[in-house]
Amino acid sequence: MGASLGHPVQAANDLVLDYSLDRSFDGSSDYVDQTNDLEKVKGLSQGSMLVTFKTTSTKVANTFISAADTQDPSSNLSFTMNNGGIYFENRENGAYATRLTASGSFNDGNWHTAVLTVGSSGTKIYVDGREMGSSESTAFFSNVTDPDGMWIGKNVDNTGGQWYYNGRIDKLQVYNKALSAEEVRALSDGATNGFFKEKELFNINDGKGYAQYRIPSISVTANGTILAVAEARTGGDQTPTDLVLRRSTDGGETFSEQVILAPGVANGHAEMNPMLLAEDTGSTVHLLWSRWEWGNCKYFIRTSTDNGATWGETRNITDVLDAYTDPESPDYFPNLSAAGMGPGHGLQMSNGALVVPIYLTTEGWSNSTVAYIYSTDGGTTWQAGPKVPNPGGYTKIHENMMVELSDGGLMANMRNPGSDYRAVSTTAGLNEPWSTPVSDTKLIDPVNEASLATYDENTILFTNTANTSARTNMTIRMSDDDGQTWFASKEIYAGMTGYSDVYVGPEKTINTLYEKPAGSKIVLAQFNKDWILGAANIRLQTSKQIESGETSTVKATFTNHSEKVEKDVEVNLEHPENWAIEASQPVTFDEVKPGESVEVTWNVTPDETVEAGTYDLTAVASFTLNGNQTSATASKKIQVLPKVPTETSYLSDLGWISALNGWGPVERDLSVGENDAGDGNVLTINGETYEKGLGVHAYSEIRYHIGGNFSRFKAEIGVDDEVAPSSAASVVFQVFGDGEKLFDSGLMTGEDEAKNVDISIEDVNELKLIVTDGGNGNGSDHADWANAKVIVAKEDISAATMKAMVKEFAEEGEFVNDRAAHSLDIHLTAVDRYEDQGLGDKVVKHLEGFAQLLDYQKENELISKRAYESLQEDMEYLVEKYQ
């Protein structure tokens, strides 16, 4: 940070001390002794102090400036940072004249300007131009009667130095007047339109007798009423617990006394997992929760029609779980022992449906998954939604939150024990199947609860403890692409914390209710989007997928969120090797004014040699603010797809977009075998062997990019013989084209014959093969996609393409000798000539001879089964075409 101030004239005239430091302090011994200047300020009865700083320290006390009587243990004036907040104390002989805190997490590694003002109207603390705390005290330097020292970076008492500052300080100033709010704003370098404030809502020291306050839930009604609910526990988890509510009708400035909405303590019940759900219009809000008792799950609801002022009777809605306990139900969950909700808040979808995320688990959490319940009649009745698949790596997904996506679908973000990341699944809409979960490696997590909320139609918010080993670093993130990437993040609190719930009010204030720390306190942090984005932000837009050799457009948008002109702006794109990048307009800008945005687009082309996979593109913006150069970055992942085949092909010969398997890897031309690659056996279904195909284990999901080039998908499917017919193997085969289900085998076991699959895949770009377990777990679920292949669009088949196929098969050793291939080629040469001449009858006649030769070669084992079937299929098509 630079030392130029650009003061308003009036403030400059009242400047007493002006220190341009631009230096770091180590937090243990560094300081600057300014005792020689003490005479200039010790008599001030009013005035102001300003400091520009940045730090990531979590120390209890970091001193900006302090004046003290070093002979006394407790006579000092100190302006400090305490636990991430800004703090001022003024005391004489142990008697405090002022103790004032501006709560926040200003130890986020960004530059901030903190200003203290003391005048006839009291004491105020401003951070980045916004008032964050106030006190009636009017005490300033003169309150300390005999100061004998003044320091930047530490305090001193009769025991020596203490409270050493750890971080950087750019400048520190003292004024002889209480600066006005306008002067403070003008002096706050790079101040943004962001704001942040916190209020404590629940504290175990409130005299109400609870041992813990945990599990926050928050909603804001259409008229702006804020409702905050928490578990009030008598002990730890699953002990008798009340659900208590506090309510604000003035935007969070004041809250009502807490009231009990679900009285569990008096009845010995653990009323848990609160889920507030405020309807988008009107004054109706619901509270749903689960009563936790292993082997006896119960769900309840209460409804308010006056923004939470009064509540209707408790209703038991446990029968909604019948869909998960009925063996005949498609959503049956074997051995269900407990069912929780969220926790957090529910949502109302754009179609009006009310949705509440839930989770289901067996005893001891050995197997769990996620689902939702929903209502289409305003909460009167509730229905069960589909379960999220829980294959290997995701068998214990449970606590979760959901958000509606831009296309009307849903995204579930889930706790996943055993992983360092959040698990994510999506569905196309209400009652549509969920995708297989994946790990979002941007969202690190210590196995904890997290929250989701919609900010606007383009933006999703996410909060969690962004740490892999401890429940610390409460962080909020923003996504503008339905959670595919997260373009901005900011730490709310660095210390020990826990669960959180984030909700956006109608005026776009972001409300985050979180544990600080877990068990003892729950606080409400309120801030806006600009506080997250800081002085400047860059956003990157790309397509999700691209083919090598093809060109796609990438766009970066740089926005100035500060109140100062940002100069010398340059936006560049970092890219992998062998990618051609060409900007379509200049990438430099002399200046960008507050609130304005500039855009840069590039044409991006991965070279033909670039292999299929996922790659990072990063936009980097550099700019100058207040004479200091800084930067902002944004990254997106883009997937280079496998080459699209142009001929009829076995899937085992093609590259896939992704492959998930319940045991070991997906095997090509082998059964799944054991846990290592290549350890399978010959594909065999009820005694019939197959040279080609895919060996999988439920749950399995394989995605192929086929580019709309094919007309049909064919395969023979079944349970592989490497597991006994009497085993527990039971699977269901499914085929999807561009997200639409095209085939479902129904339940298949080891006793079933192979089933034939022959379906149209015209115009399909992405083909997905899924094998699920049959509802009894995935033990022994070895499944085969035998002879799985995609058939080129029929209009592309000709004698010439068949000649090329014969040549390729010969090169691959599919004939016993060259003579066999040559004889087929001679027949096809004649057919090709007659096709060119338009003599259909002669085409058919010569193809009949070709068919006889093909059968002869098969009977005498001169040709492989694979080559025979492919050539026969194309031959039959041409005969039908010309007859």
From TrEMBL:
Gene Ontology BP, a term: oligosaccharide catabolic process
Residue intervals of the Laminin G domain: 45-177
SUPFAM superfamilies in the record: Concanavalin A-like lectins/glucanases, Galactose-binding domain-like, Sialidases
Catalytic activity annotation: Hydrolysis of alpha-(2->3)-, alpha-(2->6)-, alpha-(2->8)- glycosidic linkages of terminal sialic acid residues in oligosaccharides, glycoproteins, glycolipids, colominic acid and synthetic substrates
GO molecular function: exo-alpha-sialidase activity
Domain of life: Bacteria
Sequence ranges assigned to domain Glycosyl hydrolase family 98 putative carbohydrate-binding module in this UniProt record: 645-792
EC numbers: 3.2.1.18
GO cellular component: cytoplasm; membrane
PANTHER family in the record: EXO-ALPHA-SIALIDASE, SIALIDASE
Family named by the database record: Belongs to the glycosyl hydrolase 33 family.
Protein name (database record): exo-alpha-sialidase
Species: Virgibacillus phasianinus
